[in-house]
Amino acid sequence: MLCSSENHRMERLALPCFFLLLVSIFTSSDAGSIGVNYGRIANNLPSATKVVELLKSHGLERVKVFDTDPAVLKALSGSGIKVTVDLPNEQLFAAARSKSFAASWVQRNIAAYHPSTQIEAIAVGNEVFVDTRNTTRYLIPAMKNVHDALVKLNLNNAIKVSSPIALSALQNSYPSSAGSFRPELVESVFKPMLDFLRQTGSYLMVNAYPFFAYESNSDVISLDYALFRENPGVVDAGNGLRYFSLFDAQIDAVFAALSALKYDDIKLVVTETGWPSDGDENEIGASMQNAAAYNGNMVRRILTGGGTPLRPKADLTVYLFALFNENQKNGPTSERNYGLFYPNEQKVYDIPFTVEGLKNYHDNRSPLPGQERMTTPPVSGRTGGVSTSSAGNTWCVAKGEVGKEKLQAALDFACGEGGADCRPIQPGSTCYDPNTLNAHASFAFNSYYQRKGRAGGSCYFGGAAYVVTQPPRFGKCEFPTGY
């Protein structure tokens, strides 16, 4: 989960009547598809068997998981639910280096369950370009080895191979027509990856979160624009197209980036998008009402058919993030409140997931009395940290005693979903040395902390960080005090 930004003031022009067509209901054959991400970083979730029944009872026919847990894949057997599984980032090196490892992985985690478990895609890694372990160079070889293993088992036509990218992989995202990939990734990664997708008939996986763009630019981005509500729209000065949602603008920036490299034929699947129902005080827009509006209107936007302004015929498959609130996730409060359901299987807010359910759906702009903050109990440490108003210069550093596993997970979050500036700790950069987990994590945590304005709760990371009042010292690296 990474953010992109939209830094120009939106035009206030008359609303064309054709925007109202978005509320009409088409048949499912004319529309896209809605799925859900089933994350399990929690200690209070129902069994996989119960989860499958939950998915079926709400008409959700696609699910994406972040591993290949046998209990989950077995529970999905015979359910009719289409499944996307993940080969984790930490296994990219092995899959790239060894064809036999990739073949064994596919045999053990895919062939052993398919077709009874309807695995339709393998996500090789996740947002690899922001992985601090420098796994980008292993991505393409790993994808090819996994695909070759599928070919040998005659599964390559049924199961596609791709890899989710975050919007941070774009050099430019505004206006949409100027969308382009980061130049240092074009020749080394994107062109070979897109060639591979074209040759194998696969598609590009993209994680897009308008919430992050709105949170960072709420003074210039209309909330209605971010939540798919009626609004005057924004005209793209580059191509003259009018956008009525930030989501469409973000997706078209990716399409424009593909077009710039002459890969207009590559299809796109949105593997993650969502909006948190609760957040820290500085997480502008994180609320029950906004989450219900974003996800409910997203379902309507996708199931009523039609593509984006740039690709009007490109009906999208979109996976909402996430199925449950996950109480053991690192980061700010929002990270633990993206769920559509509580662990007791009750809806966090009432939205439909099917065309039938949309017939009675209305985007309620005001929460019902007493439901303004219907969220899970506060997480311990949520109000930790030191606010800018009460502390002069403060920094956030890693707490080494929590152990390597927890520290690495928190570092991955900070440089990934958290949006910390981790470029200085990449090989050859100014803060790469000393090359230790503690030093790199401290730099990333501090970057996140400073970017959040040193707000309460932004130096927590699941207990893996704490605030100091003296400048941290790691070699010659200087830690910033603000952005």
TrEMBL record:
Q: Where is the X8 domain?
A: 394-479
- This entry's Enzyme Commission designation comes to 3.2.1.39
Concerning InterPro entries, the annotation shows: GH, Glyco_hydro_17, Glyco_hydro_17_plant, X8
Q: Does the keyword Glycoprotein apply?
A: yes
Annotated Gene Ontology cellular components are:
plasma membrane; plasmodesma; side of membrane
Answer whether the UniProt record assigns the keyword Cell membrane to this protein: yes
Where are the stretches annotated Disordered?
362-389
Q: Where in the cell is it found?
A: Cell membrane
User: What segments bear the compositional bias annotation Low complexity?
Assistant: 379-389
Q: Name one GO molecular function term.
A: glucan endo-1,3-beta-D-glucosidase activity
Q: Where is the signal peptide?
A: 1-31
What does it catalyze?
Answer: Hydrolysis of (1->3)-beta-D-glucosidic linkages in (1->3)-beta-D-glucans
**How does the protein's chain sit in the membrane according to the entry?**
Lipid-anchor; GPI-anchor
Q: Which GO terms describe its biological process?
A: carbohydrate metabolic process; defense response
Top-level EC class: hydrolase
- Keyword tags: Cell membrane, Disulfide bond, Glycoprotein, Glycosidase, GPI-anchor, Hydrolase, Lipoprotein, Membrane, Plant defense, Signal
Question: Which family, according to UniProt?
Answer: Belongs to the glycosyl hydrolase 17 family.
For this protein, the record's PANTHER family field holds: GLUCAN ENDO-1,3-BETA-GLUCOSIDASE BG1-RELATED-RELATED (PTHR32227)
Q: What is this protein called?
A: glucan endo-1,3-beta-D-glucosidase
Say which species the protein is native to: Juglans regia
